[in-house]
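Box 3.1 A note on notation
Throughout this textbook, protein chains are presented in two layers. The first layer is the amino acid sequence; the second is a token string describing backbone geometry. Keep the layers aligned when reading.
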Amino acid sequence: MQAAATKQIINLENIRGAIAAKIDSAAFTSWIEPLKFSICDGVLVLGAQNQFSADYIASVYNGVLSAVAAEFGLTLSIYVASVPVATTKIANDNNTQNYAPATPDVTAHIAFDDFVSSDENAFVLSAARRVATGAVSFSPLFIYGPAGCGKTLLANCINSSATGRVVMMSGAQFVAEFTRSLATHTIFAFKDFCRNCDTFILDDIQVLAGKRATMDEFMQLVIDLREAGKNVVLTSAQSPNNLSGFDRRAQSLLASGLVADMVAPDKNARRTILIRSGVANDVAEYIAAHTTANGHTIAGVANKIKTYSELMGQSVDIDTASRLLADTLEKSKTPIAMVRDMCEKLGVSYDSVCGAGRGRRLVLARQIMMVVLKDVTNLSLAEIGNMVGGRDHATVLYAIRQIEKLKQSDLVLSAQINQFISDCR
């Protein structure tokens, strides 16, 4: 009798080891280790602590568990184990766990009216407002765009205005909380905390890249919330299909709702942000026209002007702003500066452009510069020739005609010239 019991214990330990070898260590610790293992009449019986755990394990790990059971000549059965009454807390028991985020949400209330939107962002703003009013059919709402375009601010607006319970986390916070819940054996309470809401917001989802166990947990969270009719809002620096470190299944799930891109604030939006921050109208107009900075930089500019005014006891006019923000404002581009900039981008020296060299690559670069200067300046053909080494009127005219012919058959050259023109304006 004792020998049979010892043999069964050995078999169970061997089975655990075989499963651990086939599953990620974090996933094994989170899902498999808490199970109650037993063997009965040729069946490997796994007892889960609650129905959620049993359903999840059966849907995600059934194949691996069945294969390991078969290696030992067993079939598989997963059930919800009965939990005995106890006076102490039982790890991984949904009824006894307590969970609270290590860093509580202290986000300030931000209304949608406080969000300054460019015309290009009108669509994503409308989608965010709709999410805040209640359940939508396009969950998850996936918002992406470059740094400083307002993704986090818009997510905070949803957090402040949404009906029902809202859970908002950054990507880094979700990773930290998931890891902490594993270490403290409160994983099921953490799952309940994330699912017990009407709207779940994750800011900077790209942080999850490469963290397999965390990503698997989050993908299941998105699925569960969506099936329950809850709203999910995600922000990212890249679109779903361009997220590195995410497999195709995850990318497909993230793109299955509504994907909306955001752009950095345009001139009007920059001016409005500055005026709302207390900057004088004429100064705000000047700064907005002389910078293409994103929202983060514009906020920094507003803080710098406000701080200068408070410390120096004087208002900031345009002259003061231009001196104070010399490192931020764009300088007016002279024709020489344009030529030097194009030299750097084309990989030729300014001296060689102005010299007598007749190499094919050098001549083409010189002709491109003449065409760009003709388009973005009011210089005469003779003046343009002087900018590239004293070429005469006829040489500049010939260069313009040659480039126009080349652009008709060389789309790459045409796009390059258009980009140069855009950069010089």
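The longest helix spans residues 2-20. Residues 335-424 form a domain with the Chromosomal Replication Initiator Protein Dnaa; Chain: A; fold (CATH 1.10.1750.10).
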